[in-house]
Write a structure and sequence with these properties.
This protein is an alpha/beta fold and about 160 residues long. Helix content is about 40%, strand content about 25%. Helix 1 packs antiparallel against helix 2. Pfam families: DUF6932.
Length: about 160
C-alpha cells in the first residue's frame, strides 16, 4: 500500500517499488471524480505494454509527475525507462521507430541505458539515475516527494 505525507506526496521520498494494479487502485480508482486519470492510466499501460512487446520485456520504469500525486486532473504521466545497454544498442532502430510513433500523447517518456557495475560507462548510468532521482524527489516548489518504480522481467 502506498503512503502519502500531509501534502499528498508519496513517501518515502525515494523510488517506491510498485505495480500497475497498485497504481490503478491508488491513482485511478480512489479518485473517481477525475476526468483525466483513467485515460492517463490506459495510456501508461499501453505504453509499457508496447515497449515490452516491441523492444524488450526486461526493463525498469520510473513514473512521476502530477499523475503520481492526488492532483485531481493531471495532464500527463512522466516515464523514464532504464534498458540494458546491450538491448539498447541492439534495438536502436526499433527504439527510434517506437519514439517516432508518438502513439501515447499523454506519456512524457525518456529511455536511458543501464550499465552493469563492471562496465566503463557504469558511472554514466549512475549519473543518469542520480539526475532522475534528484528531479523526481522534488516538485516545482522544491517540496520533497517520492516516485514510483516498476521492474519488468518478462524475458527470463
Amino acid at each position: 500500500m502506498l503512503s502519502f505525507d500531509m501534502t499528498g506526496h508519496l513517501i518515502p521520498y525515494d523510488g517506491i517499488l510498485s505495480s500497475l494494479p497498485e497504481i490503478e487502485t491508488t491513482f485511478v480508482d480512489s479518485i473517481p471524480e477525475s476526468a483525466t486519470r483513467k485515460d492517463l492510466f490506459i495510456q501508461l499501460v499501453g505504453y509499457l505494454t508496447a515497449f515490452k512487446n516491441e523492444i524488450s520485456g526486461t526493463f525498469t520504469a520510473i513514473i512521476d509527475g502530477s499523475f503520481a500525486t492526488y492532483q485531481l486532473n493531471p495532464n500527463d504521466v512522466d516515464v523514464v525507462i532504464f534498458l540494458d545497454y546491450r538491448l539498447y544498442e541492439q534495438s536502436k532502430e526499433r527504439l527510434d521507430e517506437f519514439r517516432r510513433k508518438a502513439r501515447f500523447s499523454k506519456i512524457d517518456s525518456y529511455i536511458e541505458q543501464a550499465y552493469p557495475i563492471n562496465h566503463p560507462y557504469y558511472i554514466r548510468y549512475q549519473s543518469d539515475v542520480a539526475y532522475w532521482h534528484s528531479l523526481f524527489t522534488r516538485n516545482r516548489r522544491k517540496e520533497r516527494k517520492g516516485y514510483l518504480q516498476i521492474s519488468y522481467n518478462y524475458d527470463a
